[in-house]
Design a protein that fits this description.
This protein has 52 residues and is mostly helical. It is 37% helix and 0% strand.
Length: 52
């Protein structure tokens, strides 16, 4: 079985949206804390999946 990649949300592409004059609707979305990322990884692992 393939592993599940945990990819935390980030805002690195926000400038690209601005350059394209396109609204970035996720502007107020916070990036997850390391603890939240670890919790997500643990949820997958608790179901027998490999999460990286």
């Amino acid at each position: 079985m393939s592993p599940v990649d945990i990819l935390p949300f980030h805002k690195l592409g926000e400038a690209k949206w601005q350059a394209l004059a396109t609204p970035f609707t996720l502007h107020d979305t916070p990036s997850p804390t390391p603890g939240q990322v670890a919790a997500a990884r643990e949820m997958f692992q608790s179901h027998g999946l490999t999460a990286v």
